């Protein structure tokens, strides 16, 4: 194999290309001022271009002269380890240190071992307080579906610099705030008490060790994706020059929903003195994660109990209006103190527990804190007496085994692309943190748009479920069913919502939280001009179609007829009845129309110069309504006569209503121009065009073109500009063959290449203000054989949270929708599986730099293990079945691996 030797000098990077010990070529890449990370990006780009056959590299020690020459370069943030990380990820191959090379007898094996490490680990070196730190904390979050802890170290407290938080699934509270001179009510995802804080004070100093006052020499945080273990290594120095080496481990037990543990080791490096270690149970915390929400009411609970005795502490709080009780019980142990030596102090909102001991230089002292978190919304174990954790190692081992079970079902293994492999594992990990089969199947919750990682969108449940649910449908069907039950349990509220808006049936809210009420805020802050404006996103009624689609997807993939008969058919029928009541017959056109809605685009809320919000005949909405009416007929055929009669009695549906649905299905209106472009909504073609090049030149980042236009005193309603896929979203949900059938039934005749035309038309008018936009367009681009475009958009979606491409949104929580969608597109577009048909169908279409991919899925009650390559598919099925590969049928024998060549 060819590999590189990289030597960073004060003003150049020297590169030797080697094969074994033989030097093939040498080159020096010069630079002047070293600007980290920009200079690394430039150098990495040059290396990729000039050494395309290299498969790994050695990074030699950095001479002290480099940092002397570039005094602006922080040794904390631009350490050798961080430089190696950036070079490795930008070039896409493993990089060894000179010491790693010296300890290895087999270079190829060493590179393979490093590659495996890189694809299973998330490493951050250094510390940049503020929004960048907030983003790191989101990506380092640990959790188990019931709770999530942001990836802070124990010494961090709530501030603009860093933000520790403990979130519990389904925990909401509503508060009033004054905004723009009026009182508004918002339901928020609650940040609960912080039990993670630990700090140190050395004898002879008055200060507790904090990042704000101390000197940080080293900070390395690691998240092991395979095991869910968070590790932080730190070397820190107080103002009296006392240096300490601190190692902190955190784990949220995946096997036990209520437990998390911290293992904290301290080692004095240059002194022997008394040390006091303090840990707190902090009930003074409040919501602070999202900057634009900080002027709103932020304290969502009050304390009902604080008590401490020896090594035990208890805090119980209750949310102010939702009246949910939360209890945290903690136990501390250590190898340098007894329980009766702990000094406990109880204040109004905080419990402080202190231990003082005599520490010897270079000796390690280990402290453990075990916390049990309970919430009254998780009724099953609220009153249950839980046994305390015995040790950190026992908790970690138990959790590690649970994680292994999850990875065995959900991991996607890719050969030939280090970073795509790493990012897909990051995305899978965060979905399992957000909802897990170990801890969610007895909870009445769904997956929030930002997981258990942050407070953006107030932790609400959106239509993002249409992107999220397929991950669980494919890998953990029981969890998918539980997530759908969250919606079924709020069907009554959806019917109330419809009635209040003068519709029939069930109209699910755009933003849902605790009880299924409409929780969309009425005002929205534009950060570009600091002004609050009306928010009309409540009109995105298509959220009900997303719920219907997920019900159908779950049933179609699982074959769970019992779910349909007991819950699913009722949901579909009530949602369909809502859309029937929303449709109006136009005598002039002899077609039905649906108005007063918004599509997925979100930039368009009304017609130009209109005083009323809402649009007419949104194509995505209307065609999905037709799809729903068609599928409802198939679903109802599963029910026998008595079951149908009971369902119709319960819902009030009559044969006349079903007949009207059937009529709407054949005569619902959309607008299509002569070239076969399907109008996003009626009247869209009359809007003005935007000069995109001028906008990019003026603003650079034009993702949120709506905010730019509003800040200039204009309106996106006047322009052909979209935030994300709208009309094109149809082709993400449904096979093109299905859409062709729908269009034909409606009487619309479009040219054969209408998909390509629509893709290019809307792609040229989309700003990608949502990270979801790229992945939807990536799938469509691949479908019409725009391979390079597909790969570009797919990579942007994969990196979107990891690189925080929207400039700070990751700080407010990861994007569960795009993370799930990248996994779905990897399986359905590139591996080519289709789960919408009776038999598993596979049309492999691997990217050119992938050799093969291995994964597991569940389909129709059968578990499949698959390896998809360039010219063959290997399949192992749990039952005798048939699959279709490259349009050819193949019989499979249970538990016998079959290789199908093509």
UniProtKB/TrEMBL annotation:
Residue ranges of every copy of the Glycoside hydrolase family 65 C-terminal domain listed in the record: 837-885
Active site: 602 (proton donor)
Residues noted as binding substrate in the record, renumbered to the chain: 463-464, 723-724
Pfam name, any one: Glyco_hydro_65N
Example of a GO biological process term: carbohydrate metabolic process
PANTHER family assigned: GLYCOSYL HYDROLASE-RELATED, PROTEIN-GLUCOSYLGALACTOSYLHYDROXYLYSINE GLUCOSIDASE
Protein name in UniProt: Glycosyl hydrolase
């Amino acid at each position: 194999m060819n590999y590189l030797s990289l030597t960073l000098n004060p003003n150049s990077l020297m590169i030797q290309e080697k094969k074994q010990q033989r030097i093939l070529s040498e080159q020096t890449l010069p630079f002047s001022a070293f600007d980290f990370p920009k200079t690394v990006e430039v150098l990495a780009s040059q290396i990729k271009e000039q050494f395309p056959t290299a498969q790994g590299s050695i990074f030699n020690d950095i001479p002290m002269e480099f940092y002397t020459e570039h005094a602006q370069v922080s040794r904390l943030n631009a350490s050798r380890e961080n430089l190696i990380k950036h070079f490795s990820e930008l070039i896409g191959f493993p990089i060894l240190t000179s010491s790693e090379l010296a300890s290895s007898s087999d270079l190829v094996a060493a590179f393979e071992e490093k590659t495996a490490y890189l694809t299973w680990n998330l490493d951050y070196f250094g510390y940049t307080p503020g929004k960048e730190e907030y983003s790191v904390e989101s990506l380092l979050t640990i959790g188990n579906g019931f709770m999530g802890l942001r990836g802070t170290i124990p010494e961090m407290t709530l501030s603009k610099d860093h933000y520790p938080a403990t979130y519990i699934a389904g925990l909401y509270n509503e508060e009033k705030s004054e905004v723009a001179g009026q009182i508004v009510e918002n339901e928020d995802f609650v940040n609960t008490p912080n039990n993670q804080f630990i700090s140190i004070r050395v004898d002879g100093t008055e200060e507790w060790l904090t990042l704000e006052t101390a000197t940080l020499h080293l900070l390395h945080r690691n998240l092991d994706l395979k095991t869910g273990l968070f590790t932080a290594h730190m070397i820190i120095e107080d103002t009296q020059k006392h240096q300490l080496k601190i190692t902190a481990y955190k784990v949220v037990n995946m096997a036990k929903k209520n437990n998390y543990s911290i293992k904290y080791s301290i080692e004095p490096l240059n002194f022997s003195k008394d040390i006091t270690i303090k840990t707190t149970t902090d009930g003074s915390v409040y919501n602070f994660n999202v900057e634009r929400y900080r002027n709103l009411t932020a304290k969502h609970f009050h304390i009902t109990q604080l008590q401490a005795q020896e090594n035990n502490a208890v805090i119980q709080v209750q949310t102010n209006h939702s009246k949910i009780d939360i209890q945290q019980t903690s136990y501390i142990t250590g190898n340098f103190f007894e329980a009766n030596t702990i000094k406990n102090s109880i204040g109004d909102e905080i419990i402080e527990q202190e231990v003082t001991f005599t520490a010897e230089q270079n000796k390690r002292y280990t402290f453990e804190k075990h916390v049990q978190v309970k919430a009254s919304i998780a009724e099953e174990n609220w009153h249950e007496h839980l046994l305390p954790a015995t040790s950190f190692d026992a908790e970690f081992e138990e959790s590690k085994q649970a994680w292994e079970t999850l990875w065995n079902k959900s991991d996607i293994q890719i050969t030939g692309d280090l970073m795509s492999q790493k990012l897909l594992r990051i995305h899978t990990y965060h979905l399992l943190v957000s909802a897990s089969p170990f801890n969610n199947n007895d909870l009445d919750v769904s997956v929030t748009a930002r997981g258990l990682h942050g407070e953006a969108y107030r932790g609400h449940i959106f239509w993002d479920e249409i992107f999220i649910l397929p991950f669980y449908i494919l890998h953990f069907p029981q969890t998918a069913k539980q997530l759908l039950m969250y919606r079924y349990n709020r069907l009554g509220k959806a019917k109330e919502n419809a009635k209040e808006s003068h519709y029939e049936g069930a109209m699910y809210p755009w933003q849902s939280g605790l009880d299924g009420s409409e929780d969309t805020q009425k005002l929205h802050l534009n950060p570009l001009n600091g002004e609050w404006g009306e928010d009309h996103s409540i009109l995105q009624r298509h959220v009900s179609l997303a719920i219907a689609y997920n019900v159908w997807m779950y049933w179609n993939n699982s074959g769970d007829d019992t779910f349909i008969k007991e819950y699913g058919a009722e949901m579909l029928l009530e949602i369909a009845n809502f859309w029937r009541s929303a449709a109006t017959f136009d005598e002039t056109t002899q077609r039905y129309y649906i108005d007063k809605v918004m599509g997925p685009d979100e930039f368009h809320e009304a017609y130009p110069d209109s005083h009323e919000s809402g649009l007419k005949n949104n194509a995505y909405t209307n065609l999905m309504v037709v799809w729903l009416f068609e599928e409802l007929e198939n679903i109802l055929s599963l029910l026998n006569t008595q079951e149908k009669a009971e369902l119709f009695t319960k819902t009030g549906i009559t044969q006349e209503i079903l007949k009207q649905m059937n009529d709407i299905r054949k005569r619902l209106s959309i607008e299509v121009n002569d070239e076969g472009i399907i109008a996003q909504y009626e009247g869209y073609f009359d809007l003005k065009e935007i000069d995109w090049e001028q906008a990019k030149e003026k603003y650079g980042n034009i993702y949120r073109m709506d905010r730019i236009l509003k800040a200039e005193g204009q309106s996106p309603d006047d322009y052909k500009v979209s935030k994300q896929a709208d009309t094109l979203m149809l082709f993400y949900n449904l096979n093109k063959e299905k859409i062709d059938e729908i269009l034909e039934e409606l009487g619309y005749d479009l040219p054969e290449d209408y998909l390509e035309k629509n893709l290019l038309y809307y792609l040229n008018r989309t700003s990608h203000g949502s990270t979801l936009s790229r992945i939807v367009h990536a799938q469509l681009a691949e479908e019409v054989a725009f391979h390079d475009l597909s790969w570009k958009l797919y990579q942007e979606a994969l990196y979107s949270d990891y690189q925080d491409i929207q400039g700070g949104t990751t700080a407010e929580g990861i994007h569960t929708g795009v993370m799930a969608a990248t996994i779905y597109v990897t399986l359905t577009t590139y591996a080519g599986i289709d789960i919408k048909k009776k038999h598993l169908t596979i049309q492999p279409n691997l990217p050119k730099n992938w050799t093969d991919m291995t994964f597991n899925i569940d389909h129709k009650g059968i578990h499949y293990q698959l390896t998809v390559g360039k010219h063959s598919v290997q399949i192992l099925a749990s039952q005798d079945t048939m699959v279709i590969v490259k349009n050819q049928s193949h019989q499979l024998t249970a538990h016998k691996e079959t290789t199908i060549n093509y």
